[in-house]
Design a protein that fits this description.
It contains 15 helices and 16 strands. The protein starts with a strand and ends with a helix.
Amino acid sequence: MKYETVIGLEVHVQIKTKTKIFCSCSTEFGARPNENTCPVCLGMPGVLPVLNKRFLESSMRACLATHCTIEPMNRFARKNYFYPDLPKGYQISQFELPLGTNGHININVDGTKKRVGLTRIHMEEDAGKLIHGENLGSPGKSYVDFNRTGVPLCEVVSEPDMRSAEEARAYLNELKSILEYTEVSDCNMEEGSLRCDANVSIRPVGQKEFGTRTELKNLNSFKFVQKAIEYEVDRQTQLLDQGDTVKQETRLYDSDRGETFPMRSKEEAHDYRYFPDPDLVPIMIDEPWVARLRETIPELPEQKRQRFATSYAIPEYDAGVLTSSKPLADYFEQCTTLFPHPKTISNWIMGDLLRELKKDSKDILDCPIPPSALVDMLKLIEAGTISGNIAKGIFEEMYQTQKSAGSIVEEKGLKQITDSSAIEKIVAEVIQANPSQVEELKGGKEKVLGFLVGQVMKASKGKANPGMVNKLLKEQIG
């Protein structure tokens, strides 16, 4: 490998509050354009901002959950730039005195664990949204919706510690889980609650100095983050191999073409002319306040993964999947309280249940099969009432109809055949119908046994007890 990839991420997180950062306007998504606005968030002359305490404390919780040091004094600054969706001509953000510093997030990529540093977490207000006329049947015109203006954000800025697109995606997944577990944000990327910018550069292996970076803006899915970084690394590699240079610029990702393209050139120095906001006093945070909030931090994804792997004796991979969201972890634990066979439960959740949910683009919160219903089906398997193979079909019907496993078994007559005399008769018929395979088995070709078992199961419509079928086949063939 000639080059090493260097990646840093800036993630904008919408904090879950009912009102905006400095006024009482609603943060509800989907309102009519410019409905959730007032003189404060529109920057009218003479208005004064008042900080939302819930937003501040949620931001502090985000800092604590990511091992950041909460600074005892931090303050807001004005970040000056002019754009149509920024009504004041400046954004209230934080600059030299952010809320949190020097944190970290631990990630795991293909079994390799790594710590990614966090430079800072700072608070800021969101800007509005430009809607171009092409989308409204008015080509050549643009409209501004100020509903998002003043929506409370935290910006989480990582160190340039990631070395691959896979590590970047793992970092984002872990950050999202932490924010969801702490109920700091709903992290809904479709509604803009989580947005990511990626700084990407490459350098010759062994070189200490960073290469020229490009910034990839407004990446709205983890998949696109990974794809955009992979494309950008390939693009920069080709440039250097050809003897060209990488320009420092901001680029956008076209998901349809799978390519990045230039948005604007970017100078090294940002001329935002930051200065402390004169309308907002510095925020003083004492240790008792931090201690009270620290007590509200729940068991976080990393801790839960470790507990699941140890307490339930399941593989680390299983624990990682099951704790990827708190509702999924809760679903699993509710099942284990009713049916103390964690690996069996894990297999069904990770296989059949998540497959069906993914097919329907549903979340575990929308799952039509509650934990008690899944457990009832597993108990039927354990009791020998149904086979594992029949359970697959029953599960699909449960998912589609919300019927119980017991009622489906009764309606369709799916009880497993455990009467040895009935199975013996089917086994004898299969042996008689497949003389050549029987001879092969007698000759030592063990794989043929699977074929014969399959024939018996087919003849019994999947209702014969597989263990008894194996036993009786071996006994009758000798």
